[in-house]
Amino acid sequence: IVGGLRSSVESQPWMAAIFMGNGFVCGGTLIAPCWVLTAAHCFPSGEETKIWKYSVSLGRNTISETDSKEQKFSVSKLVVHQGFDYRTENYTHDIALLKIVNGDGKCAMKTNSVRTACLPPFQQMVPSGFYCEIAGYGRYQRGGFEYSRHLKMARVELISQSDCQHKYYNEDEVNRYMFCAAGRNWEDDACQGDSGGPLVCEINNTMFLFGIISWGKECAEQSNPGVYTKVTKYNQWIAKHTGLPAYTIG
Ligand code: 4AZ
To answer: What cellular component terms from Gene Ontology apply here (predicted)?
Structure first.
């Protein structure tokens, strides 16, 4: 996250960190005790058969050190959206699911630092101009290469679909499965290493996961908003692959 501020995981308790071996891969969001939603582009094609390489941490304030309150899991299933094409520069359907399980065969336990985010109802998008928040452990400086030592968050404003498709990007780059958001004065943005992580919006005191951090041209550059996977297009896909009852999905 470029700009924004340092966050504690207690204020982003749905935040997941995905690792391959000891290496950090991507952010993610806990949407049910056994399920983390993330971005498809975090996984090269064919990774569904190599889930033993991956692990997931919840309740973690830094990437570099383990946390006394953290919960660690292995991955028992990886579902990458079948419409995502890793070989092209196209990020359509940048969505994936991880099923998590710990050494005792259990899923996530609710604590002060671990909690699920809600999924919004199908096709119900927040209006442009609305402010939401993003979180991640990725790069923290415009043009920088270093990942943040701590979890960070930032407030971003949702940009109208037509502005995003005509003013900032084009319709080939940004389609109806994506939306755009940017910080005040273009100063706050997601950056490399944040992908897969959450864009949540507060509605009636409840945090709903509307976006998955996906891509963008550079980070925190004027007129280059961040682009997010539009979670409200995927309720049925999530229900089908998790088996979660539809009423818990928005
Ligand atoms: C990335 O490479 C990435 N500024 C994610 C988000 C943004 C740029 C790059 C948005 O994962």
So the answer is: extracellular space
Structure tokens at 34: 């056994």
Of 13, 34, 192, 18, whose CA–CA distance to 102 is shortest? 34
Q: Indicate if 172 belongs to the active site.
A: no
Determine the residue of 41, 180, 195 to mutate for testing ligand 1's pocket, defined as the one with the most ligand atoms within 8 A of the Cβ atom: 195
Tokens at 76, concatenated: 């028992």
pTM score, whole prediction: 0.97
ipTM for the complex shown: 0.97
Convert the pLDDT of each residue in 222-234 to its tens digit.
Answer: 999 999 999 999 9
Residue 227 CA: nearest ligand 1 atom is 10
> Dihedrals φ, ψ of 63, to 5°?
-85, -30
- Residue nearest atom 1 in ligand 1 by C-alpha distance: 192
